[in-house]
């Protein structure tokens, strides 16, 4: 069970790391809020052929929990991405990477507040190691540079994005017992509907960049890879080992994003990137060792 969860979560973070690269490549080819809207249009169209029938059959259960499912789709799928892209207009990618590393911490705190779930000391050490790895990546191997960062409006709203995705991750434990096809389609429809006002605002503000061929290709990747496949994998991984442990893998996203930039964009590979990857993987392994032992002892 754990091996399956690890494979699913590692694949998820690799796809999300690719999404970071796609976001860089999309600049000038498709505007941010248009990208958010179109990725969920495509995601719904991809899911409809094999999700519509299960959704109809699961509708009696889903109807009783539609507010929760709508909130999860809105919070985790739409709000996080809209705020993430908006934050990058006001602050640096370094700041965003560091702030995104707070997601596992917020997940742990939320699980303790709402469900009284405790963590072991080794899990805390593991979380700390992953954060150091992210910081090393974000600072390009020069940690003292982080002391010179300026905090601004973008950083403040990025913390809202961190809260949104953390609550989404924790809230998945409350999802109704329906098939994954039904759940993903319902979440994606919620995300699509709530992305419409942001898309309209971008049109009214005159900031829309209609995707060109390059933009459509990147949008398709974000829809199929980063939205449909990655979210299915994350939900399943979360289900297998819990939000506290699954959330920690999120700190691999900036690491994978950096390594993929080396492979795809042609950026130069640096020794600190290998060290950062080792720190994050080591932190996850340490936290997993402690977390799995706790499950065995209490199971």
TrEMBL record:
<dbReference type="InterPro" id="IPR037185">
    <property type="entry name" value="EmrE-like"/>
</dbReference>
<keyword id="KW-1133">Transmembrane helix</keyword>
<feature type="transmembrane region" description="Helical">
    <location>
        <begin position="30"/>
        <end position="48"/>
    </location>
</feature>
<feature type="domain" description="EamA">
    <location>
        <begin position="153"/>
        <end position="286"/>
    </location>
</feature>
<dbReference type="GO" id="GO:0005886">
    <property type="term" value="C:plasma membrane"/>
</dbReference>
<dbReference type="InterPro" id="IPR000620">
    <property type="entry name" value="EamA_dom"/>
</dbReference>
<keyword id="KW-1003">Cell membrane</keyword>
<feature type="domain" description="EamA">
    <location>
        <begin position="5"/>
        <end position="137"/>
    </location>
</feature>
<keyword id="KW-0472">Membrane</keyword>
<feature type="transmembrane region" description="Helical">
    <location>
        <begin position="183"/>
        <end position="201"/>
    </location>
</feature>
<feature type="transmembrane region" description="Helical">
    <location>
        <begin position="151"/>
        <end position="171"/>
    </location>
</feature>
<feature type="transmembrane region" description="Helical">
    <location>
        <begin position="121"/>
        <end position="139"/>
    </location>
</feature>
<protein>
    <recommendedName>
        <fullName>EamA domain-containing protein</fullName>
    </recommendedName>
</protein>
<feature type="transmembrane region" description="Helical">
    <location>
        <begin position="246"/>
        <end position="266"/>
    </location>
</feature>
<keyword id="KW-0812">Transmembrane</keyword>
<feature type="transmembrane region" description="Helical">
    <location>
        <begin position="68"/>
        <end position="88"/>
    </location>
</feature>
<dbReference type="InterPro" id="IPR050638">
    <property type="entry name" value="AA-Vitamin_Transporters"/>
</dbReference>
<feature type="transmembrane region" description="Helical">
    <location>
        <begin position="94"/>
        <end position="114"/>
    </location>
</feature>
<feature type="transmembrane region" description="Helical">
    <location>
        <begin position="213"/>
        <end position="234"/>
    </location>
</feature>
<dbReference type="Pfam" id="PF00892">
    <property type="entry name" value="EamA"/>
</dbReference>
<feature type="transmembrane region" description="Helical">
    <location>
        <begin position="272"/>
        <end position="289"/>
    </location>
</feature>
């Amino acid at each position: 069970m754990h091996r399956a969860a690890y494979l699913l979560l590692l694949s998820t973070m690799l796809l999300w790391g690719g999404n970071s690269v796609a976001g860089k490549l999309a600049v000038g080819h498709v505007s941010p809020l248009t990208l958010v809207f179109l990725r969920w249009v495509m995601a719904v169209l991809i899911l409809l052929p094999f999700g519509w029938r299960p959704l109809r059959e699961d509708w009696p259960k889903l109807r009783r929990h539609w507010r929760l499912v709508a909130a999860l789709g809105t919070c985790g799928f739409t709000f996080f991405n809209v705020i993430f892209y908006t934050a990058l207009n006001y602050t640096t990618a370094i700041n965003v990477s560091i702030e995104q590393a707070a997601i596992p911490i917020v997940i742990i705190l939320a699980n303790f507040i709402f469900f009284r779930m405790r963590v072991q000391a080794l899990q805390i050490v593991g979380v700390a190691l992953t954060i150091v790895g992210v910081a090393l990546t974000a600072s390009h191997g020069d940690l003292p540079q982080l002391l010179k960062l300026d905090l601004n409006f973008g950083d403040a709203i990025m913390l809202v994005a961190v809260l949104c995705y953390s609550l989404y991750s924790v809230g998945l434990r409350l999802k109704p017992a329906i098939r994954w096809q039904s759940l993903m389609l319902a979440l994606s429809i919620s995300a699509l509907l709530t992305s419409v006002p942001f898309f309209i605002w971008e049109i009214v503000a005159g900031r829309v960049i209609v995707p060109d061929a390059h933009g459509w290709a990147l949008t398709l990747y974000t829809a199929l890879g980063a939205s449909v496949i990655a979210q299915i994998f994350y939900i399943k991984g979360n289900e297998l080992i819990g939000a506290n442990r699954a959330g920690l893998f999120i700190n691999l996203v900036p690491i994978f994003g950096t390594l993929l930039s080396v492979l795809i964009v042609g950026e130069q590979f640096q020794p600190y990137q290998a060290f950062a990857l080792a720190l994050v993987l080591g932190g996850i392994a340490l936290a997993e060792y402690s977390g799995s032992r706790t499950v065995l002892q209490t199971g």
